[in-house]
Amino acid sequence: MLKIIYFVHGTSTDNEEHRSSGWHDCPLSDLGVSQTIQAKNNLICKQFDIVFSSDLSRARQTAGILFPKLDVVFDERLRECNYGVLNGSLGRRVKYEEHIKTPFPEGESLLDVQARITAFLHENLEKNDNKVIAIISHRAPQLALDVIVKKYSWSYAIKKDWRINGNWMPGWEYIIDDV
Fold first, then answer.
1. What DSSP line would sit under 127-156, residue for residue?
2. Which helix (H) or strand (E) holds 114?
3. Buried (b) or exposed (e) across 114-150, using 16+ Cβ within 10 A?
4. Fewer CB within a 10 Å sphere, N or C end of the chain?
5. Can you tell me the distance from the alpha carbon of 75 to that of 120, in angstroms, rounded to the nearest whole number?
6. Is 106 left (phi over 0), alpha (psi -120 to 50) or beta?
7. Digit-coded pLDDT (tens) for 64-78
8. Cα atoms in the Cβ-side hemisphere of radius 13 Å centred on 26
9. Is 80 noted as a catalytic residue in this protein?
10. pLDDT in tens, 155-170
11. Which residue has the higher pLDDT, 125 or 66?
12. Coil, strand, or helix at residue 163?
């Protein structure tokens, strides 16, 4: 069994500019830093055996603020979906519903993200049995966890996404017995 507490990065400069970041590497904004400091005070779990983070700057910064005294393992499999030609694009041109199976032009599909997250879980489930791990990442990897762990369909996971419903939390808990 593996217990995961999942954290999303704070608001980035791209978020403030209404850009769809994807693999575009942007930092946290001042608001994002403030949000992350506030989130640190409200962590739903205080003890972690290991911390994993996406290697993109906004997640790295979030990890550093949330867990300044812990070593963080950066893993590119925890990156946001690669939106291809839409990485860093202005506006709301990224529509997850249209790219569950079909990759973004020159990018990947949500099923590709699911495969990355599944590989990450397979590798870490056995190594970290009965441990509590933190993951700092992005939207698509979190939705992939909902699909893998909660057995949601992609359509349902997208529809239930807290970003749409405004149900942010200072961490989401996932318990995994097998993948």
1. HTTTEEEEEEE-HHHHHHHHHHHS---HHH
2. helix 110-127
3. bebbbebbeebbeebeeebbbbbbbbbbbbbbbbbbe
4. N
5. 9
6. left
7. 999 999 999 999 999
8. 25
9. yes
10. 999 999 998 888 877 7
11. 66
12. helix
Helix (H, G, I), strand (E, B) or coil at 51: strand
Average pLDDT taken over every residue of the chain: 93
Q: What six digits make up the tokens of 59?
A: 């997640």
Q: CA 30, CA 113: separation in Å to the nearest integer?
A: 29
Q: Which of 9, 24, 99, 138 is catalytic?
A: 9
* Catalytic residue from among 16, 17, 18, 80: 80
pTM of this prediction exceeds 0.85:
yes
Topology given in CATH for the domain delimited by 2-176 = Rossmann fold (3.40.50)
Residue 177 has pLDDT above 90, yes or no: no
Query: What is the rounded CA–CA span in Å between residue 52 and residue 128?
Result: 12
Torsion of CA 81, 106, 14, 4, to 10 degrees: 10
Counting Cα atoms < 13 Å in the Cβ hemisphere of 47 gives 1
Q: Tell me if residue 126 is catalytic.
A: no
The pLDDT confidence band at residue 5, using thresholds 50, 70 and 90, is very high
